[in-house]
Amino acid sequence: EKQGFSHFMAKEIFEQPQAIRATTSGRLPRAGEDDLGRGEPSFPELAELDVPALAARAKVTMLACGTSWHAALAGKYLFEQLARVPVEVDLASEFRYRQPIVRPGDLAVAISQSGETADTRAALMEARRLGATGLAICNVVDSSIAREADRVLYTHAGPEISVASTKAFTTQLAMLTLLAVHLGRRTGALTLERAAGLLDGLRELPVALDAVLGQAAAIEIIARRWRSARDWLYLGRGLAFPVALEGALKLKEISYVHAEGYACGEIKHGPIALVDERVPVVVLALEGPGYHKTLASLEEVRARGGKIIALASAGDRRIGDLADDVILVPQVDPYLQPILASVPLQLLAYHLARLEGRDVDQPRNLAKSVTVE
Ligand code: M6R
Questions:
Q1: How far is the centre of ligand 1, averaged over its atoms, from the C-alpha of 295 (Å)?
Q2: Which of 41, 131, 316, 330 is the residue whose CA sits 20 to 30 A from 202?
Protein backbone atom coordinates (compact mmCIF):
# COMPACT_ATOMS: atom_id res chain seq x y z
CA GLU A 1 0.00 0.00 0.00
CA LYS A 2 3.05 2.25 -0.04
CA GLN A 3 2.75 2.08 -3.81
CA GLY A 4 6.43 1.52 -4.43
CA PHE A 5 7.68 4.12 -1.95
CA SER A 6 9.86 2.95 0.92
CA HIS A 7 7.86 4.96 3.47
CA PHE A 8 4.36 6.36 3.81
CA MET A 9 5.93 9.76 4.36
CA ALA A 10 7.51 9.71 0.90
CA LYS A 11 4.27 8.51 -0.65
CA GLU A 12 2.33 11.26 1.07
CA ILE A 13 4.84 13.95 0.07
CA PHE A 14 4.47 12.87 -3.55
CA GLU A 15 0.69 12.81 -3.30
CA GLN A 16 0.55 16.55 -2.68
CA PRO A 17 -0.27 17.74 -6.20
CA GLN A 18 -3.28 15.43 -6.18
CA ALA A 19 -4.20 16.28 -2.59
CA ILE A 20 -4.19 20.02 -3.30
CA ARG A 21 -6.38 19.37 -6.30
CA ALA A 22 -8.80 17.43 -4.10
CA THR A 23 -8.93 20.28 -1.55
CA THR A 24 -9.48 23.02 -4.06
CA SER A 25 -11.31 21.63 -7.07
CA GLY A 26 -14.83 21.65 -5.62
CA ARG A 27 -14.36 25.21 -4.38
CA LEU A 28 -12.76 26.84 -7.39
CA PRO A 29 -14.96 28.54 -9.96
CA ARG A 30 -15.32 26.43 -13.08
CA ALA A 31 -13.14 27.38 -16.02
CA GLY A 32 -15.13 29.67 -18.27
CA GLU A 33 -17.16 30.98 -15.33
CA ASP A 34 -18.70 34.35 -16.11
CA ASP A 35 -16.86 37.48 -15.11
CA LEU A 36 -18.49 37.81 -11.72
CA GLY A 37 -18.00 34.18 -10.68
CA ARG A 38 -14.33 33.84 -11.43
CA GLY A 39 -13.12 35.47 -8.20
CA GLU A 40 -15.52 33.63 -5.90
CA PRO A 41 -14.55 30.35 -4.26
CA SER A 42 -17.56 28.33 -3.19
CA PHE A 43 -18.25 28.11 0.55
CA PRO A 44 -21.97 27.35 0.93
CA GLU A 45 -21.20 26.25 4.51
CA LEU A 46 -20.52 29.88 5.44
CA ALA A 47 -23.56 31.50 3.84
CA GLU A 48 -24.96 32.59 7.19
CA LEU A 49 -21.73 34.02 8.58
CA ASP A 50 -21.90 37.81 9.01
CA VAL A 51 -18.47 38.52 7.54
CA PRO A 52 -18.57 42.35 7.57
CA ALA A 53 -19.50 42.24 11.28
CA LEU A 54 -16.73 39.71 11.92
CA ALA A 55 -14.21 42.08 10.35
CA ALA A 56 -15.51 45.24 11.99
CA ARG A 57 -16.56 44.19 15.47
CA ALA A 58 -15.36 40.66 16.21
CA LYS A 59 -12.41 38.40 15.45
CA VAL A 60 -11.29 34.95 14.42
CA THR A 61 -9.50 32.74 16.94
CA MET A 62 -7.54 29.87 15.44
CA LEU A 63 -6.95 26.83 17.63
CA ALA A 64 -4.59 23.98 16.81
CA CYS A 65 -1.52 21.97 17.85
CA GLY A 66 1.79 21.09 16.19
CA THR A 67 1.85 21.27 12.43
CA SER A 68 -1.79 22.37 12.34
CA TRP A 69 -0.81 25.30 14.56
CA HIS A 70 1.77 26.31 11.97
CA ALA A 71 -1.00 26.29 9.38
CA ALA A 72 -3.06 28.46 11.73
CA LEU A 73 -0.22 30.96 11.98
CA ALA A 74 -0.08 31.15 8.19
CA GLY A 75 -3.87 31.53 8.29
CA LYS A 76 -3.49 34.67 10.39
CA TYR A 77 -1.23 36.28 7.78
CA LEU A 78 -3.62 35.24 5.00
CA PHE A 79 -6.87 36.33 6.68
CA GLU A 80 -5.51 39.64 7.91
CA GLN A 81 -3.73 40.61 4.69
CA LEU A 82 -6.26 39.35 2.15
CA ALA A 83 -9.51 39.87 4.05
CA ARG A 84 -8.64 42.43 6.77
CA VAL A 85 -10.29 40.19 9.35
CA PRO A 86 -8.51 40.25 12.72
CA VAL A 87 -7.13 36.90 13.83
CA GLU A 88 -5.65 35.51 17.02
CA VAL A 89 -3.80 32.23 16.97
CA ASP A 90 -3.70 30.05 20.06
CA LEU A 91 -1.97 26.83 20.88
CA ALA A 92 -4.97 24.71 21.80
CA SER A 93 -3.22 23.46 24.93
CA GLU A 94 -2.83 27.04 26.22
CA PHE A 95 -6.16 28.49 25.19
CA ARG A 96 -8.44 27.25 27.93
CA TYR A 97 -6.06 28.16 30.72
CA ARG A 98 -5.42 31.80 29.84
CA GLN A 99 -8.97 33.05 30.33
CA PRO A 100 -9.29 33.95 26.66
CA ILE A 101 -11.51 36.81 25.57
CA VAL A 102 -14.03 35.37 23.14
CA ARG A 103 -17.42 36.92 22.50
CA PRO A 104 -20.59 36.05 20.62
CA GLY A 105 -20.00 36.99 16.99
CA ASP A 106 -16.42 35.66 17.07
CA LEU A 107 -15.44 32.75 14.87
CA ALA A 108 -13.33 29.94 16.34
CA VAL A 109 -11.46 27.97 13.69
CA ALA A 110 -10.17 24.62 14.94
CA ILE A 111 -7.60 23.06 12.61
CA SER A 112 -6.83 19.35 12.94
CA GLN A 113 -5.80 16.68 10.48
CA SER A 114 -7.07 13.80 12.58
CA GLY A 115 -9.97 15.65 14.15
CA GLU A 116 -9.13 13.75 17.33
CA THR A 117 -6.56 15.96 19.06
CA ALA A 118 -7.87 16.30 22.61
CA ASP A 119 -6.53 19.79 23.29
CA THR A 120 -7.92 21.17 20.04
CA ARG A 121 -11.31 19.62 20.70
CA ALA A 122 -11.42 20.98 24.25
CA ALA A 123 -10.36 24.45 23.06
CA LEU A 124 -13.09 24.45 20.42
CA MET A 125 -15.66 23.45 23.04
CA GLU A 126 -14.50 26.29 25.29
CA ALA A 127 -14.68 28.86 22.47
CA ARG A 128 -18.20 27.74 21.64
CA ARG A 129 -19.18 27.86 25.31
CA LEU A 130 -18.05 31.50 25.30
CA GLY A 131 -20.33 32.23 22.36
CA ALA A 132 -18.15 31.81 19.27
CA THR A 133 -19.33 30.00 16.16
CA GLY A 134 -17.13 26.91 15.72
CA LEU A 135 -15.65 26.11 12.34
CA ALA A 136 -13.50 22.98 11.96
CA ILE A 137 -10.92 22.37 9.25
CA CYS A 138 -10.31 18.63 9.34
CA ASN A 139 -9.04 15.90 7.11
CA VAL A 140 -10.72 12.91 8.73
CA VAL A 141 -14.42 12.88 7.93
CA ASP A 142 -16.84 12.68 10.85
CA SER A 143 -14.04 12.94 13.42
CA SER A 144 -14.69 14.25 16.95
CA ILE A 145 -13.69 17.83 16.16
CA ALA A 146 -15.74 17.81 12.97
CA ARG A 147 -18.74 16.71 15.02
CA GLU A 148 -18.10 19.29 17.74
CA ALA A 149 -18.13 22.23 15.30
CA ASP A 150 -21.07 24.21 13.91
CA ARG A 151 -19.55 23.98 10.43
CA VAL A 152 -16.85 21.76 8.90
CA LEU A 153 -14.54 22.20 5.94
CA TYR A 154 -12.81 18.98 4.91
CA THR A 155 -9.41 19.14 3.26
CA HIS A 156 -9.89 15.80 1.43
CA ALA A 157 -6.14 15.06 1.54
CA GLY A 158 -6.80 11.31 1.80
CA PRO A 159 -5.49 9.12 4.64
CA GLU A 160 -2.24 10.32 6.19
CA ILE A 161 -0.45 7.36 7.77
CA SER A 162 3.00 8.75 8.52
CA VAL A 163 3.20 10.41 11.93
CA ALA A 164 4.93 13.39 10.32
CA SER A 165 2.28 15.52 8.74
CA THR A 166 2.94 16.53 5.12
CA LYS A 167 0.00 16.61 2.74
CA ALA A 168 -2.31 17.42 5.64
CA PHE A 169 -0.33 20.63 6.20
CA THR A 170 -0.24 21.84 2.61
CA THR A 171 -3.92 21.10 2.12
CA GLN A 172 -4.72 23.06 5.29
CA LEU A 173 -2.76 25.95 3.79
CA ALA A 174 -4.72 25.61 0.55
CA MET A 175 -8.03 25.62 2.44
CA LEU A 176 -7.00 28.67 4.48
CA THR A 177 -6.00 30.49 1.29
CA LEU A 178 -9.35 29.72 -0.33
CA LEU A 179 -11.09 30.85 2.82
CA ALA A 180 -9.08 34.08 2.98
CA VAL A 181 -10.08 34.84 -0.62
CA HIS A 182 -13.71 34.11 0.20
CA LEU A 183 -13.64 36.36 3.27
CA GLY A 184 -11.75 39.03 1.35
CA ARG A 185 -14.47 39.15 -1.28
CA ARG A 186 -17.16 39.42 1.39
CA THR A 187 -15.39 42.19 3.33
CA GLY A 188 -14.56 43.98 0.10
CA ALA A 189 -10.83 43.88 0.87
CA LEU A 190 -10.07 41.89 -2.30
CA THR A 191 -10.92 43.08 -5.77
CA LEU A 192 -12.49 40.58 -8.13
CA GLU A 193 -9.36 40.78 -10.29
CA ARG A 194 -6.99 39.99 -7.42
CA ALA A 195 -9.23 37.19 -6.13
CA ALA A 196 -9.46 35.64 -9.59
CA GLY A 197 -5.66 35.81 -9.90
CA LEU A 198 -5.18 33.96 -6.62
CA LEU A 199 -7.72 31.30 -7.58
CA ASP A 200 -6.02 30.82 -10.96
CA GLY A 201 -2.75 30.42 -9.07
CA LEU A 202 -4.30 27.76 -6.82
CA ARG A 203 -5.64 25.94 -9.87
CA GLU A 204 -2.16 25.84 -11.40
CA LEU A 205 -0.36 24.96 -8.19
CA PRO A 206 -0.29 21.15 -8.71
CA VAL A 207 1.91 21.67 -11.77
CA ALA A 208 4.33 23.83 -9.78
CA LEU A 209 4.32 21.17 -7.03
CA ASP A 210 5.25 18.53 -9.58
CA ALA A 211 8.24 20.66 -10.55
CA VAL A 212 9.35 20.86 -6.91
CA LEU A 213 8.95 17.11 -6.46
CA GLY A 214 11.11 16.67 -9.53
CA GLN A 215 14.00 18.00 -7.47
CA ALA A 216 13.84 15.25 -4.86
CA ALA A 217 17.14 13.72 -5.99
CA ALA A 218 18.94 17.07 -5.75
CA ILE A 219 17.53 17.59 -2.26
CA GLU A 220 18.77 14.14 -1.25
CA ILE A 221 22.27 15.20 -2.32
CA ILE A 222 21.99 18.29 -0.11
CA ALA A 223 20.84 16.08 2.77
CA ARG A 224 23.91 13.85 2.32
CA ARG A 225 26.19 16.87 2.40
CA TRP A 226 24.84 18.13 5.72
CA ARG A 227 23.92 14.89 7.43
CA SER A 228 26.51 15.21 10.19
CA ALA A 229 25.12 18.55 11.42
CA ARG A 230 23.53 18.37 14.86
CA ASP A 231 21.89 21.81 14.96
CA TRP A 232 19.87 23.42 12.22
CA LEU A 233 18.18 26.79 11.89
CA TYR A 234 15.28 27.60 9.60
CA LEU A 235 14.59 31.26 8.85
CA GLY A 236 11.64 32.90 7.14
CA ARG A 237 9.85 36.21 7.12
CA GLY A 238 6.13 36.89 6.72
CA LEU A 239 4.31 33.85 5.39
CA ALA A 240 7.62 32.01 5.20
CA PHE A 241 7.96 32.21 8.99
CA PRO A 242 5.37 29.49 9.75
CA VAL A 243 6.93 27.44 6.95
CA ALA A 244 10.31 27.77 8.70
CA LEU A 245 8.75 26.60 11.98
CA GLU A 246 7.22 23.65 10.17
CA GLY A 247 10.49 22.76 8.43
CA ALA A 248 12.27 22.66 11.78
CA LEU A 249 9.52 20.58 13.39
CA LYS A 250 9.66 18.09 10.53
CA LEU A 251 13.40 17.62 10.96
CA LYS A 252 13.39 17.20 14.75
CA GLU A 253 10.38 14.94 14.82
CA ILE A 254 11.66 12.29 12.42
CA SER A 255 15.46 12.57 12.61
CA TYR A 256 15.86 13.58 16.30
CA VAL A 257 18.25 16.29 15.17
CA HIS A 258 17.91 19.66 16.87
CA ALA A 259 16.33 22.32 14.69
CA GLU A 260 14.72 25.66 15.36
CA GLY A 261 12.59 27.90 13.22
CA TYR A 262 12.77 31.66 13.59
CA ALA A 263 11.45 34.79 11.99
CA CYS A 264 14.39 36.40 10.16
CA GLY A 265 14.14 39.57 12.18
CA GLU A 266 14.52 37.66 15.44
CA ILE A 267 17.90 36.09 14.86
CA LYS A 268 19.89 39.01 16.16
CA HIS A 269 17.87 38.86 19.37
CA GLY A 270 19.52 35.63 20.43
CA PRO A 271 19.71 32.72 18.00
CA ILE A 272 22.56 34.16 15.95
CA ALA A 273 24.78 33.21 18.89
CA LEU A 274 24.27 29.58 17.83
CA VAL A 275 25.69 30.16 14.37
CA ASP A 276 29.08 28.82 13.36
CA GLU A 277 30.44 26.82 10.44
CA ARG A 278 28.84 23.62 11.71
CA VAL A 279 25.30 25.00 11.62
CA PRO A 280 23.33 24.76 8.38
CA VAL A 281 20.82 27.58 8.12
CA VAL A 282 17.89 27.04 5.79
CA VAL A 283 16.81 30.46 4.56
CA LEU A 284 13.45 30.85 2.83
CA ALA A 285 14.31 33.59 0.37
CA LEU A 286 11.54 33.46 -2.20
CA GLU A 287 10.89 36.59 -4.20
CA GLY A 288 8.22 38.84 -2.80
CA PRO A 289 7.70 41.72 -0.40
CA GLY A 290 10.25 40.62 2.25
CA TYR A 291 12.94 39.42 -0.14
CA HIS A 292 15.56 42.13 0.40
CA LYS A 293 15.25 42.04 4.17
CA THR A 294 15.59 38.27 4.08
CA LEU A 295 18.81 38.61 2.10
CA ALA A 296 20.09 40.97 4.80
CA SER A 297 19.44 38.26 7.41
CA LEU A 298 21.16 35.73 5.18
CA GLU A 299 24.24 37.99 5.01
CA GLU A 300 24.28 38.33 8.79
CA VAL A 301 24.35 34.55 9.14
CA ARG A 302 27.02 34.20 6.47
CA ALA A 303 29.21 36.78 8.15
CA ARG A 304 29.25 34.52 11.24
CA GLY A 305 30.36 31.51 9.21
CA GLY A 306 26.92 29.86 9.00
CA LYS A 307 26.31 27.56 6.05
CA ILE A 308 23.37 28.63 3.93
CA ILE A 309 20.85 26.41 2.21
CA ALA A 310 18.62 28.85 0.39
CA LEU A 311 15.16 28.22 -0.95
CA ALA A 312 14.71 30.70 -3.77
CA SER A 313 12.50 31.49 -6.73
CA ALA A 314 13.43 30.18 -10.16
CA GLY A 315 15.25 32.92 -12.04
CA ASP A 316 16.93 34.37 -8.95
CA ARG A 317 20.45 35.15 -10.17
CA ARG A 318 21.83 36.65 -6.95
CA ILE A 319 21.23 33.82 -4.57
CA GLY A 320 23.81 31.45 -6.05
CA ASP A 321 26.63 33.73 -4.89
CA LEU A 322 25.27 34.02 -1.38
CA ALA A 323 24.35 30.44 -0.50
CA ASP A 324 26.22 27.15 -0.17
CA ASP A 325 23.28 25.26 -1.63
CA VAL A 326 20.23 26.52 -3.48
CA ILE A 327 16.87 24.88 -4.04
CA LEU A 328 14.79 26.70 -6.66
CA VAL A 329 11.02 26.60 -6.75
CA PRO A 330 8.77 27.92 -9.53
CA GLN A 331 7.55 31.50 -9.29
CA VAL A 332 4.02 31.72 -7.94
CA ASP A 333 1.97 34.41 -6.23
CA PRO A 334 3.63 35.23 -2.86
CA TYR A 335 0.44 34.14 -1.05
CA LEU A 336 0.78 30.67 -2.56
CA GLN A 337 4.48 30.29 -1.82
CA PRO A 338 4.01 28.63 1.61
CA ILE A 339 2.43 25.58 0.00
CA LEU A 340 5.24 25.24 -2.49
CA ALA A 341 8.06 26.05 -0.06
CA SER A 342 6.94 23.41 2.45
CA VAL A 343 7.68 20.56 0.09
CA PRO A 344 11.50 20.84 -0.22
CA LEU A 345 11.69 21.10 3.57
CA GLN A 346 9.65 17.91 3.93
CA LEU A 347 11.99 16.17 1.49
CA LEU A 348 15.07 17.46 3.29
CA ALA A 349 13.80 16.16 6.64
CA TYR A 350 12.78 12.87 5.07
CA HIS A 351 16.19 12.22 3.53
CA LEU A 352 18.09 13.28 6.64
CA ALA A 353 15.99 10.91 8.78
CA ARG A 354 16.41 8.08 6.31
CA LEU A 355 20.17 8.59 6.14
CA GLU A 356 20.24 8.42 9.95
CA GLY A 357 18.41 5.11 9.75
CA ARG A 358 15.42 6.43 11.68
CA ASP A 359 11.99 4.86 11.74
CA VAL A 360 10.63 7.57 9.46
CA ASP A 361 6.93 6.74 9.64
CA GLN A 362 6.86 5.89 13.35
CA PRO A 363 9.28 8.20 15.17
CA ARG A 364 9.99 7.35 18.79
CA ASN A 365 7.75 8.79 21.53
CA LEU A 366 5.13 10.08 19.09
CA ALA A 367 1.61 9.03 18.12
CA LYS A 368 -0.29 10.02 15.01
CA SER A 369 -3.06 11.59 16.99
CA VAL A 370 -2.71 12.84 20.53
CA THR A 371 -6.00 11.97 22.17
CA VAL A 372 -4.97 12.86 25.72
CA GLU A 373 -4.64 16.42 27.01
O1 M6R B 1 -4.34 15.75 13.95
P2 M6R B 1 -3.88 17.13 14.31
O3 M6R B 1 -3.67 17.99 13.13
O4 M6R B 1 -4.76 17.78 15.33
O5 M6R B 1 -2.47 16.90 14.99
C6 M6R B 1 -1.77 17.94 15.60
C7 M6R B 1 -0.36 17.54 15.88
O8 M6R B 1 -0.31 16.49 16.81
C9 M6R B 1 0.40 17.13 14.62
O10 M6R B 1 0.35 18.11 13.64
C11 M6R B 1 1.87 16.82 14.94
O12 M6R B 1 2.54 18.00 15.30
C13 M6R B 1 2.51 16.13 13.74
N14 M6R B 1 3.13 14.91 14.15
C15 M6R B 1 3.54 16.95 13.06
O16 M6R B 1 4.10 16.32 11.98
A1: 31
A2: 316
